[in-house]
Amino acid sequence: MKSVSSAPGKVILFGEHFIVYGGKAVLCSINKRITVYSELTKDVKIEISSDLGSISIPVNKDIKSVYSVFRPIVFLAQKILRQFKSDSGVRITITSEIPAGIGLGSSSACCVAAASSILGLFSNPSKQEILDLAIDAERTIFKNTSGADSHVCTYGGIMEYSKNGIKKLDLKPSFKLVIANSKLTHTTAEVVAKVRRFKEKETDTFSVLCENESTLIEEALDSLKKDDVISLGQKMLVNQTHLQKIGVSNETLDSMLDLVKDASYGAKITGAGDGGCIIALVDNKNMDKALNILRSKYECFAANIDTVGVDNER
Ligand code: PMV
Hints:
There is one protein chain. The chain has two domains: 2-171, 2-Layer Sandwich (Ribosomal Protein S5, domain 2); 176-303, Alpha-Beta Plaits. It contains nine helices and twelve strands. The longest helix has 24 residues, at 203-226. The radius of gyration is 20 Å and the shape is globular. It is of the alpha+beta class. Strands 1, 2, 3, 4, 5, 6, 7 and 12 form an eight-stranded mixed β-sheet that branches. A four-stranded antiparallel β-sheet has the order 9-10-8-11. (3R)-3-hydroxy-3-methyl-5-(phosphonooxy)pentanoic acid (PMV) binds at residues 12, 16-17, 19-20, 103, 146, 188, 192, 271-272, 276.
């Protein structure tokens, strides 16, 4: 028996970085998915393969000695096999429509899809069970994860995230996004540290920006509720000015944003910045125009908002 599950990637629509200092952020899942296939095997091994490589290890290998990008998936396989007292091995195959390492939630989506797929070999898990396991798995590589990405990948849709928790917004937006990859590598932790240095040096400026960002997010939530793509785009442009001021944009990202300015309702970086991706807000009227302009220079694709979250095709 094969168990197949998929989970969506995500973007941050508003609030990255400011959320670290107590603000809100708005995230949404996108219809680009990671799919995980699992099957039990007689060979008592955990075998994992994807575009990133492959691994084959004994089921009981100590997780601390697993030095691999697949460590969270090994963790999931071990934990679930133990939970269901299985003496089988498991073969896991991962396919992805989401480029890795560019802030689109590929590692969370992978953990969520894998938790669902492997659990699906034994039971019919709830989304909450899948989420809890996926967050534990992510913690094997990123101890302090907030769990926000996994939450969005599990439940899908648009979510408001704050220190008080995560709230799924009951919205059916008509907008789409064009996502373009700068191909500049970045490390979230380093960019977060850079912002911290800015905050320490420019305390007053930073605190005004935090206040402005909070007001902006309330307005953006209002635009989202009204499905008002024009005002939402304007809010994205303002959010980008805040991100520029805290120093997480750069020449490449600025020129990408400039390129798509007239072909979209608004655009900004998404996630940590200093590399990674930009998102441009579009609808059916201007999506091709935005794609064509960006495609002349950058890898890009269009995405809809996913409302499904994790999906098991049992
Ligand atoms: O690039 P991502 O998807 O890892 O997003 C980082 C978001 C930050 O606000 C910059 C950091 C955080 O922990 O919230």
